[in-house]
């Protein structure tokens, strides 16, 4: 049997640097744990635009469809701000999500013990925090038609369409319930059913899917209250399921509760392929951070933890994922710190590449 | 000349209780400061539904259009959860906003010194916080057409439409710039121009309006990053302007940073009327809190501070507004606390009505 395949798309800014560290980890698993992967690499975002004039070439899209998992770094940078909407770096990312039909975006917000002081929130509010946000990723206002800027009378109007079918809601709800079953069996669904009909349908479908998961305690919350509750008492949540736009905002809000964006991975999952593995893309939550790109300052942990999620969700190697996560915790407990993790209590300052080496050593 | 007129709509839950305390304050200004108002009262929300079968009667709507300012308590309660979307308590509120054309919703998020410990955020992150969110309130996905739940093939689809015209963006942007001019001359506009065309138009129009306010330092931020930055370092902001839906979520997020929802007022302003005063409605940010309604536990301060905003924005009585705000700060500094404000350090426990009396005494 051939090795499982991974397509690496480092992207822009710090993407290539952090991805170089992921490669070290992948190599380690191949050498030491008999887990070899066929790894290929290609361009996305501004890097792809520079070469092809589009933020994702068709051949790259085709490759992404064929591999077992895509690892993406980050896209975007000030250089590309002037580009037309249709070729901006983000469109490459959105095309991957849409054409691979990666409808379930898993965004853990986890507070690492060694870093609890980093949060702007009080320690007791966030210590031990471990929530999972499941964001719908292929529909809603991100992709709904009609959209655009149109003339109307003697002015223009900007239009986007929020749009959810029952089956779109059902499949992401099911993914969230499945996750809740493997965690603390609590699921909170967030929408604005008090204002939006799409929210009414969302609530109805999530409730119906919930009948198949009687063990899961399901609750519903308006998204504005959800933002409040995330700030007030985030540990009340286990799994949260919400739509594409609310998920964008609420997951970023949740991410910031931990105080260390450089630590947060994500997985975007679609339907099972022929080999049983889900279509999948893994990426850090942080962006391309152009201000520190190329200086060896970036924290590669979010990207490495994204590979841990790949081990767990694409390759059914939960134990190996845990091994990797534990190695990272150990390195942090030893006080090893990239610049973003350096707090008043000090630590051992390391570069991007040294952090990767330390994690390999801890493995 | 006749007295300025106020229509009080106490609404549901704790609305009537907190509004009773506002009445004491209004009476005090009439008796002691020669500021008499013609006050009338009517029903909104569930209370209106119980009597009229609709959450806002046409006669009430007509009255609201005629007065100088509306003071609203809160709407909603579990009893009304089963009602059809079209007659839910919230529809009364949304009708007032829409028909009075209250396009600029001012939501201050202010951290009171005496209450800084209440926040889930670290004290140094929020102490002295004073930001103003200007939320567009009469357009966007709240009111855009088409909307509804439709059949499509053999399933249903929920649709809402985000929709902004240039003039809608322009007028709320102008309101925000005007406010920024009277504050610290910093305005941050939030949208998702990287994903939504309506956000592209938003950014373009706000930038254009900014040319009329060269003294104001204008910045733009994606709304997801906005949520992060509010949690990470809220004091970086002075005035924030954003659309109806982002404003709903971001202002609630900002509100919770202060830790004391029972303290936060809001103003919703429209175009100037013939007498020069803007159409206006004032309401606390908190909801109807049905769980504590009728028990004398509610904190009336948010509602009283909403009246202070009325003094400032409708009646051009900025000094009297400050007088009222100062009286409230004094009462808090004296340790007077409704149940929601009672922290580990203790204080003088008071009921809703005692809090009102203390504030009158401090005036
Ligand atoms: C880069 C941008 C298009 C993207 C989004 O809005 O989904 C990002 O914010 C994210 O959350 O992954
Ligand atoms: C009650 C509800 C309709 C309302 C809104 O969504 O605008 C509320 O959340 C608010 O922010 O005033």
From TrEMBL, chains A, B:
Its cofactor is Mg(2+); Mn(2+). The record marks 142, 192 as: Important for catalysis. GO terms for cellular component: cytosol. One of its GO terms (biological process) is L-leucine biosynthetic process. Pathway: Amino-acid biosynthesis; L-leucine biosynthesis; L-leucine from 3-methyl-2-oxobutanoate: step 3/4. The keyword Ribonucleoprotein does not apply. Pfam families: Iso_dh. The keyword Zinc does not apply. PROSITE patterns: IDH_IMDH (PS00470). Belongs to the isocitrate and isopropylmalate dehydrogenases family. LeuB type 1 subfamily. Homodimer. This is 3-isopropylmalate dehydrogenase. The lineage of its organism: Bacteria, Pseudomonadati, Pseudomonadota, Alphaproteobacteria, Rhodobacterales.
């Amino acid at each position: 049997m051939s090795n499982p395949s991974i397509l690496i798309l480092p992207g822009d800014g710090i993407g290539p640097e952090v991805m170089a560290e992921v490669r070290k980890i992948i190599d380690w698993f191949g050498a030491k744990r008999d887990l070899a992967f066929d790894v290929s690499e290609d361009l996305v975002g501004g890097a792809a635009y520079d070469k092809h004039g589009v933020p994702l070439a068709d051949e790259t899209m085709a490759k992404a469809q064929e591999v077992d998992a895509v690892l993406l770094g980050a896209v975007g940078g000030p250089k590309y701000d002037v580009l037309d909407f249709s070729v901006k770096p983000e469109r490459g990312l959105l095309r991957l999500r849409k054409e691979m039909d990666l409808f379930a975006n898993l965004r853990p917000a986890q507070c690492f013990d060694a870093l609890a002081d980093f949060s702007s929130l009080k320690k007791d509010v966030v210590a031990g925090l471990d929530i999972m946000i499941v964001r719908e990723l292929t529909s809603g206002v991100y992709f709904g038609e009609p959209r655009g800027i149109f003339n109307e009378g003697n002015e223009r109007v900007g239009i986007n369409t929020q749009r959810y079918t029952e089956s779109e809601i059902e499949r992401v709800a099911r993914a969230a319930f499945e996750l809740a079953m493997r965690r603390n069996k609590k699921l909170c669904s967030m929408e604005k059913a008090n204002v939006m009909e799409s929210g009414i349908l969302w609530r109805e479908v999530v409730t119906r899917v919930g009948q198949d998961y009687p063990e899961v305690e399901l609750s519903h919350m308006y998204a504005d209250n959800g933002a409040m509750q995330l700030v007030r008492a985030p540990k009340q949540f286990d799994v949260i399921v919400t739509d594409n736009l609310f998920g964008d905002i609420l997951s970023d809000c949740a991410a910031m509760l931990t105080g260390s964006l450089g630590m947060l991975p994500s997985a975007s999952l679609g339907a099972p392929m022929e080999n049983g593995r889900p279509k999948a893309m893994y990426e850090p939550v942080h962006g391309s951070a152009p201000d520190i790109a190329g200086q060896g300052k970036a924290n590669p942990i979010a990207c490495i933890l994204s590979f841990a999620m790949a081990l767990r969700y694409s390759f059914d190697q939960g134990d190996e994922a845990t091994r990797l996560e534990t190695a990272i915790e150990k390195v942090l407990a030893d006080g090893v710190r990239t610049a973003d993790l350096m707090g008043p209590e000090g630590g051992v300052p390391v570069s991007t590449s040294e952090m990767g080496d330390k994690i390999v050593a801890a493995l």
